[in-house]
Design goal:
Strand order of the largest sheet: 1-2-3
Shape: globular
Structural class: alpha+beta
Order of helices and strands: EEEH
Number of helices: 1
Distance between the termini: 19 Å
Largest sheet: 3 strands, antiparallel
Number of domains: 1
Radius of gyration: 12 Å
Number of strands: 3
Helix content: 10-25%
Strand content: 15-25%
Length: 65
């Protein structure tokens, strides 16, 4: 469980895909559910992301952010 450094709410962790890259890349998005302005971050390490998404069984779609 990761808490927002601004408001203390539990942050949302979800799969995401790049939007502007020619080759679509997978990311793990971490954001504050109260406001994306509080905290919004992305993990892009290919091996970590691939392994984490595979373990979760979730397939990132074009609208996941």
């Amino acid at each position: 469980m990761i808490r927002c450094p601004v408001c203390g709410e539990t942050m949302t962790v979800a799969p995401a895909k790049s939007r502007k890259s020619r080759k679509s890349k997978d990311f793990i998005a971490i954001r504050c559910p109260v406001s994306g302005k509080h905290f919004r971050g992305f993990i892009g390490d290919e091996g970590f992301v691939r392994e984490t998404i595979a373990r979760s069984g979730v397939v990132p779609g074009p609208t996941d952010r």
